[in-house]
Amino acid sequence: MYQGDGEGSKVTHWFVRVRNYLSEVRREMKDVSWPAWAEARSTTITVVVFVLALAVYVYVVDQICLRLIDRLLIHQP
To answer: How confident is the model at residue 2 (pLDDT cuts 50, 70, 90)?
Structure first.
């Protein structure tokens, strides 16, 4: 005899848990302190400039290492 403890109740339980989770997420998102547009733009520009500077630094260090290895290994006197 079927008692309701099979896959159907597991799926229903999963949907209830997802619904509760999304409800809690919505509630928490209302409590978030969102930055003003000027602050978000300023922070974004800072991050982009920092990432570009880091990329240039890594490129320069990579080129220096490449040339040193090239001189030491390939162009041995």
So the answer is: very low
- CA dihedral 54→59→63→64, nearest 10 degrees, is 0
Q: How confident is the model at residue 1 (pLDDT cuts 50, 70, 90)?
A: very low
Decide if 43 contacts 35 (C-beta within 8 A). Answer: yes
- Say yes or no: 76 and 48 in one domain: yes
One-letter amino acid at 62 equals: D
Residue 69, SS3 per DSSP: helix
Q: Cβ(69)–Cβ(61) under 8 Å?
A: no
16-30 core/surface letters (b: 16 or more CB in 10 A; e: else):
eeeeeeeeeeeeeee
Q: Which domain holds residue 67?
A: 35-77
